[in-house]
Amino acid sequence: MATASKPAAKVATNGATKKAAPPIDDEDSHGLMGASGQGYSWEEEYKRSWDVLQEDEQGSLVGAVNSIQMQMKRRRLNKDTKVVQRGIIRHLYLVIDLSRAMAELDLKPSRVECTLALAEQFVAEYFDQNPLSQLGVIITRDALAEKLTELSGNPTDHVDVIRKKANREPRGEPSLQNALDLARTSLAHVPAHASREILVLYASLTTCDPDNIIDTIDALRRNEIRVSVVGLSAEVQVCKTICKETKGTYRVVMNEGHFKELLFENIPPPPIAMAQNMSNLIKMGFPITRNFDPPTLCACHHKPIRKGYACPGCSSTICDIPTDCPVCALTLVSSPLLARSYHHLFPVDNYKEVIPGPPLPDVLATTATPLAGHCFACLQAFAPKAGASNAALVGLRSARYECGRCMNSFCWDCDVYVHEVLHSCPGCVNR
Amino acid sequence: MSCAEDINLLAVVVDTNPAAWAAAASDPDRPLDFVKIIEQLLIFINAHLSLKFDNELAIIASHADQSQFLYPLPPADPLDAADDEPSKPANVYKQFFDVDRAVVSKLKELVDDKRTKSAEHENRSMVAGSLALALSYINRIKRANENNSVQSRILILSISPDLPSQYIPTMNCIFAAQKVSTRIDVCRFSGRKYGGESVFLPQASHITAGIYLDIPEPSNLLQYLLYTFLPEPSMRKTLLLPHKDQVDFRAACFCHKNVVDVGYVCSVCLSIFCSLSKKCPTCQTVFPAPK
Fold first, then answer.
1. Across the interface, which of A87, A281, A431 has its CB nearest the CB of B287?
2. Residues 360 to 379 of A: which have CB under 8 A from any B CB?
3. pTM (2 decimals)?
4. I need a surface site. Which of A56, A215, A307, B119 has the fewest CB within 10 A?
5. ipTM, interface predicted TM-score of the complex
6. How many CB atoms lie within 10 A of CB A97?
């Protein structure tokens, strides 16, 4: 239990020293920053988001909006499409700092509201992208750590507990060590083939620990638990050390949009290091749906159901999958669930931007193979380059992106859609 | 509930695989005539357009080696440019006329296309590719109408057997459809010499809450289309529609393509195997010896 109140962390003291420390690509995110140009929410006196938008000579905002969109697009382009081994079956504890530092108002409406709203989105998206994974929630306040949910695969449990009023009130000091120790002991029984992770959302600049936190770091490293931290205020040395030692990532947020981005970076399964590769074949069952008339009690919740599944091992009735059979402990999944994670393993290659050359002389233009006049996927016409009134608008509309494998051209919207939602190239699957 | 301002977007994917339709035409029990099927489909499409002025439509042909939009036509398509608006009969609704003309002429182009005659493309259909195109188009329409809600659905007229190599793209499309709550309805023809059991498509309709219907009597296709697939998604709750009782969620193992109900799954790449092995053939991971 937390008895001593010694701030074990070295605290960065002012904005000037912080600037260099966090691994943030400043020039990329420039368009999202506030008026001061510094970008840190807690440094800003007024929110002057309208200053980012500059009217062009015709008094239109289209150019400014487009350039922001293009910046976001470029950032997304950096996505790694290498095929790596990923720890698809994940076990993650989400640790949320609920100390007094969370009550600050620099993130709107407040740090705690912003964090918990994003945490809910994170839980939903996490299960969407990692269907076989599990998650648990831990909060830390009053120098204690409290486990709100055990590891489980049901998103509604976690969202319900995050929404509960009693779990939304920040108070006291946080205890990083207590939270990490609690998560570590809870992750101890996780099978070796699954990845163990802790994600900390940390607002405070201090921590109130009962013991030496360096010992905890060693224990985490021994247990091969990966700790990532998203900091809400300034960079803190102890967090940096933890992440470095456990091969996690440490990022500090600048504003609400950046916060979401950093948090959601933790959703795709992380690549696994070869050393900790404890892969294994897991025995799984694929149950068949069954209809019951009259309704039958399910083996898992003892509730009457009309539609359910039959465990292929022991034929007991299950109301929903994925789960472990309560009778014979066989892992029950469906093949679509497995397929849901295949796109992490076979990502779509990034499209190349095609820069149209100068307009060809008429003689050549008729002989050369013309560029397609429209997007392959959605038939959106590419705007002609010349003769349009608004240069920035044309820049966006006529931007075309080409798949390196099927050589089809796609518009900007489809490029984003293909890589973020569809996960397969419409040109390549048509061959 | 939907309100009157909703835009209804229907994307139809028509399987135009020549081999399957040829087999179906020569089936002794239930011969299928492609032309008749397309005629009935066009009536159904006209019915969809006539329900509301705002109703949107896309028709995609899923051919043996490509997928192609039949409607709407790509901008600046030679078809539009070449013949300058042939005289529209005075008593025909303009939209019906446009759709019918585009579909018929594009289909003719596809059938006449010599490239598809090669043997390697025999009896397959690019359903996954067509789904990808349909979803991209739906995404564009949704984006263009951000202020109105767009109710989108996809109807697949399917006759070809499943293509195992398209399993992952098909699944990706299904999940993308599920994300934007687009239902995938499947209308499947099967007879003794064609069709057969599909594994992917029932999953598609089950996951996206669509309807899967094996057409028992293809000559009455229009009735099935009008009664089952025409009502918009918001009306479906109040209708008694056909549904498939048992959906097969069993997986085929990667090693022998056997359908298994208990299998072994590689923890790294999630490939499914029917027996224990030392090394994963998909991702080359070496497994520790079983204890």
1. A281
2. 373-375, 377-379
3. 0.76
4. B119
5. 0.85
6. 28
